[in-house]
Design a protein that fits this description.
The complex is a heterodimer of chains A (754) and B (152).
Chain A: E1 3-4, H1 9-12, H2 18-22, E2 36-40, E3 43-46, H3 56-63, E4 68-71, E5 75-78, E6 83-87, H4 96-108, E7 116-119, H5 129-136, H6 145-148, H7 152-159, H8 171-199, E8 207-209, E9 212-215, E10 218-221, H9 226-229, H10 258-262, E11 278-284, E12 292-296, E13 306-311, E14 315-320, H11 323-331, E15 334-337, H12 347-360, E16 364-369, H13 372-377, E17 381-389, E18 401-407, E19 410-415, H14 420-431, E20 438-442, H15 456-468, E21 472-475, H16 478-483, E22 491-499, E23 505-513, E24 530-536, H17 552-570, H18 574-581, H19 586-599, E25 609-618, E26 621-630, E27 637-646, H20 653-672, E28 678-679, E29 682-683, E30 701-707, H21 724-736
Parallel strand pairs in A: 1-7, 6-7, 11-21, 19-20, 23-24, 27-30
Antiparallel strand pairs in A: 2-3, 4-5, 5-6, 8-9, 9-10, 11-14, 12-15, 13-14, 16-24, 17-22, 18-19, 18-21, 22-23, 25-26, 26-27, 28-29
Helix pairs in contact in A: 4-8, 5-8, 7-14, 14-15, 17-21
Chain B: E1 2-6, E2 9-13, H1 21-28, E3 47-50, E4 53-56, E5 69-71, H2 85-92, H3 102-115, H4 121-128, H5 138-149
Parallel strand pairs in B: 1-5
Antiparallel strand pairs in B: 1-2, 3-4, 3-5
Helix pairs in contact in B: 2-5
The chains are: A alpha+beta (754), B alpha+beta (152).
């Protein structure tokens, strides 16, 4: 099995000192030489970049050691024939390091068992070109919220392909299919060409297998040809395998990050150890956007272990000899925050404003087919409903944290982040130093889900280190993590359908407040001739951001519940009703049919039990789920979830299944419990007692079936989330006759429909 | 000065006695496998064993464990480079995703099997409901506990 490289950046944290920091700066490698066959720092560089703008000579300094060769931006071959995949995405449990390395190894014919994997440094040469290309040149699928959520500077940087973001279920579908496969194939072709030259035989008589090149009975390791390969021009469009030729892709390879996660040795951001490091914690204004008005730290600064108390304008910080002392002192600081009319805002005000915005009718058009106004007038009947969802926190298990060391005009950051380059840029901007003076050391993320794309916590660490003059590990309390999130926005939606005489929709209109990404989230998969979707704006002061599956969470719920209402009104079975509207979409039909078959749709169930179905296409994957619910005790208990998913194909089937399971529990937590409320302008919830999670005893059994339709590869990390809420409320409706148009379900109790 | 026995090793640490064990382990002893999740005994990420029983180290003052035998994730296996059967089952079932909660999950699971070698679904629910897995790997955790139960 492949393993994590010893030089894996997260491991660097353990032994961080000035000498190991030096290796990651640019300076040492200026003039390191050109690509092929030229030595740099004593190492032979065998570099190929398959991307426009060859930066191999710059990159070699960052990722090669003395006796290793760099082949393409994405792979290097050591003299001992170890092939190392360099992965430009962060690992937060989605298995990206394993999946992307397998894609590279597949095309390169590298020996998976002897492979090493490292995460790319936060250098713009590793900016996610594949993702950038999709963003700039024509795919609507890249969630631009990931860029918008940073800041103006980062947005500009993102547009100049300065991106290295993990999010939007993009890693496999863009980096994997756009870069890793090609890189592997190009590297293999180069090595084969080099072998053909060295052995004086036609390339057609050679084959590569498990990091060796073969000619009849003769064989030699890849490493023997690295030097010659360096002198050759890489093929930018190498021949790729057909899917039926895959040997690694499509196999459930064990994830390379798992062993370290069961013996306690995995290094997360919070595990950074820097010599001389102090510990800090912060409290930001409870009303987002407010600032410190007055701060009395007379008690706090005299408390044991405290090195300093700092007014950071929009937050206060304590630095001490340990987290416990820092946290205790923080609680003894008397702060007055600036005041404004925002303090009167609560959820009622927010939703009243949303409702007024929708009523105003002044919307921005997202989707339009046919003529909704005309078709509404021609309808036999009209059905309307208002749906809403609340703000949601990400609740990553690892509280927000970062370690920073600012000295001599330079800053090092150690953190788990979905956005290392953005972190680097924002840190440089905030501290007023050059991008080159900031180094970001990434580590595993104890959950991301979109939260760790925002560089606010790393920024605070940098500021506090600069202000205190010390290397500081800054750790947020759970309460701070809950109250200073970038929340899934609260959303209000108004849906209106015009129906024909049989009750089938001929017209579909949706208006909603709060639009983020992706834009197709509010599109409808069903064959309805007249569709119009528009959004209205009603900004609040609450910080919002990307949350696993982004806008699909609310639109999946709105659309799939409302379509269920139409089915019920028409007196047609929910599953059959969807089939009628998906006649021209065989791929969707197949997913829907599979989920129904898995769950035994229509079978006799015990009293109080019922099934609900939903299907959502997101991030180029189609997922249908059937929930079996039991309401016989009043509170809904989710018994089972049957999930059918078509992502074209699954790179790592067991990993894909795990992503579906995870997405389902994530969405179920939101549907059952998830709610951040606002009173007096600030967040009410603080910890897991009032921001509840699905736990072992309320987790359903989950069955997942992967459908390999051979279509373009879709996402895995997010598409499991959107269908679960509507499938659940549709099941509850069937059991109780009660329609849930506002989430979460919370403490509602249901009785069995007579 | 507080005297501690952690993973079989004796330590004498100069620290306020009300400091939670979690921070002593992480910041004084460098045992960073035990994680901070909530600080309020609500999530289970910080679970360790004291005299073989699972406790939440984030709310347990270090004075409470003075002189008692403490086991953390680092000390779970019999020997270095070896794994506890629960850890092996965790790999077999590919349980962790982000992995942050897993030290706590594993410590709770080991404690469960030590007092109940053949737990039912309900036993597992009751013993493991204190440990949150935000990545939602409950099904795999349950399957891994059952498969380890057969081997322990």
């Amino acid at each position: 099995m492949a393993k994590l490289n010893k030089e894996y950046p997260s491991k660097k944290i353990e032994k961080s000192n000035t000498s190991s920091l030096k290796k990651w700066t640019r300076r040492g490698f200026i003039g390191a030489g050109a690509i092929a066959g030229i030595t740099a720092g004593g190492a032979l560089i065998v570099g190929i970049a398959i991307r426009p703008g060859d930066r191999t000579e710059d990159l070699s300094g960052y990722v090669t050691n003395g006796d290793e060769h760099l082949i393409t931006t994405w792979v290097k071959v050591a003299t001992d024939n170890t092939v190392t995949a360099i992965i430009p995405h962060g690992e937060m449990g989605q298995g990206v390091h394993t999946a992307l390395s397998a894609m590279l190894a597949e095309e390169m014919e590298a020996d998976w068992g002897a492979m090493e994997i490292m995460e790319a440094p936060a250098e713009k040469d590793y900016a996610n070109f594949a993702l950038a290309r999709e963003f700039l040149f024509g795919s609507a699928n890249v969630p631009s919220v990931l860029f918008d959520s940073l800041n103006g500077a980062m947005l500009a940087a993102a547009k100049s392909m300065n991106m290295q973001i993990t999010g939007g279920s993009t890693s496999v579908r863009f980096t994997g299919t756009g870069a890793m496969l090609t890189a592997g194939a190009a590297a293999k072709e180069l090595l084969l060409s080099a072998a053909a030259k060295q052995w004086g035989v036609p390339i057609t008589q050679l084959r590569a297998e498990k990091s060796f090149i073969y000619h009849n009975n003769k064989k030699a390791p890849f490493s023997e040809f690295a030097e010659i390969a360096a002198t050759l021009k890489p093929n930018l469009q190498p021949k790729l395998k057909k899917r039926n030729e895959y040997k690694l892709i499509g196999k459930s390879l064990p994830r390379v990050d798992i062993p370290a996660k069961v013996d306690g040795t995995a290094i997360f951001g919070i595990d950074a150890q820097i010599e001389g490091m102090k510990y800090g914690t912060v409290k930001a204004a409870p009303v987002h956007g407010q600032k410190v008005s007055e701060m009395d730290d007379s008690i706090a600064k005299k408390m044991p272990g405290v090195y300093g108390v700092y007014n950071m304008e929009d937050y206060i910080a304590v630095v001490a000899d340990g987290y416990w002392h820092a946290k205790n002192a923080l609680d003894f600081i008397d702060v007055t925050w600036t005041s404004s009319s925002i303090k009167n805002i609560d959820d009622k005000v927010i939703f009243d404003n949303y409702r007024s915005a929708i009523k105003s009718g002044k919307g921005k058009l997202l989707h339009k087919f046919g003529n909704v106004e005309k078709s509404i007038n021609e309808s036999a009947s009209i059905h309307e409903a208002e749906y809403s969802v609340p703000l949601l926190a990400h609740a990553c298990m690892e509280p927000m944290n970062a370690t920073a060391w600012y000295r001599d005009g330079k800053c090092d950051i150690w953190a788990g982040t979905q956005n290392p380059l953005g972190t680097r840029q924002v840190t440089a901007d905030t501290l007023g130093i050059e991008l080159e003076s900031v180094t970001v050391h990434t580590a595993f993320m104890g959950g991301g889900f979109g939260r760790r794309a925002n560089p606010d916590y790393t920024n605070q660490a940098a500021q506090v280190s600069k202000k205190s003059g010390m290397p500081v590990k800054l750790i947020w309390s759970r309460e701070e993590t809950t109250q200073q999130d970038f929340y899934r926005p609260s959303v209000l939606g108004h849906l209106k359908a015009g129906l024909d005489i049989k009750g089938l929709p001929i017209s579909w209109e949706s208006k909603f407040v709060h639009n983020m990404d992706p834009h197709e989230a509010s599109a409808v998969i069903y064959d309805i001739p007249n569709i119009k979707a528009q959004y209205m704006e009603s900004p609040t002061h609450i910080r919002v951001g990307a949350w696993r599956s982004v806008d699909h969470t609310q639109h999946g719920y709105f659309t799939e519940s409302f379509i269920d209402e139409l089915a019920s009104n028409a007196g047609i079975d929910s599953y059959e009703f969807r089939r009628l509207l998906l006649k021209t979409k065989p791929r969707h039909l197949n997913v829907l049919d599979t989920a129904a078959r898995m769950a035994g749709w229509g079978k006799t169930l015990p009293p109080g039990y019922a099934q609900g179905i939903a299907i959502v296409e997101s991030f180029m994957s189609i997922v249908a789920q059937v929930v079996t619910v039991d309401i016989s005790n009043g509170a809904p208990r989710v018994v089972n979830v049957a999930c059918a998913a078509d992502a074209g194909m699954a790179i790592n089937p067991n990993g894909f299944i795990a992503q579906m399971e995870s997405g389902i529990i994530f969405g179920l937590t939101a549907a059952l419990y998830g709610e951040i409320t606002i009173s007096n302008g600030s967040v009410d919830q603080s910890n897991f007692y009032d921001y509840k999670m699905v736990r072992m005893d309320d987790a359903p059994s989950i069955d997942v079936e992967i459908i390999s339709s051979n279509n373009r590869i879709g996402g895995a990390g997010e598409p499991g989330t959107p269908p679960i809420a509507p499938a659940l409320v549709n099941a509850i409706y069937k059991a109780s006759g009660q329609r849930i148009r506002s989430l979460p379900i919370g403490n509602q109790r249901f009785s069995i429909k007579a | 000065m507080v005297k501690l026995i952690v993973n079989g090793q004796n330590h004498e640490i100069n620290i306020d006695t009300d400091t939670p064990v979690l921070w002593v382990l992480r910041e004084k002893l460098g045992l960073i496998g035990t994680k901070f999740g909530c600080g309020s005994s609500l999530c289970g990420a910080c679970t360790i064993h004291v005299e073989g029983k699972p406790i939440r180290s984030c709310v347990t003052p270090v004075s409470n464990i003075e002189g008692k035998s403490v086991t953390t994730i680092e000390g779970l296996a019999d020997a270095e480079d070896a794994l506890h059967p629960i850890q092996e089952a965790w790999i077999e079932h590919q349980v962790p995703q982000c992995g942050y909660c897993q030290s706590g999950q594993i410590m709770s699971a080991v404690a469960l099997l030590e007092r109940n070698p053949n737990p039912s679904d309900e036993d597992i629910d009751a013993s493991m409901r204190g440990n949150i897995c935000r990545c939602g790997m409950y099904g795999r955790i349950k399957a891994a506990i059952k498969s380890a139960a057969k081997k322990v």
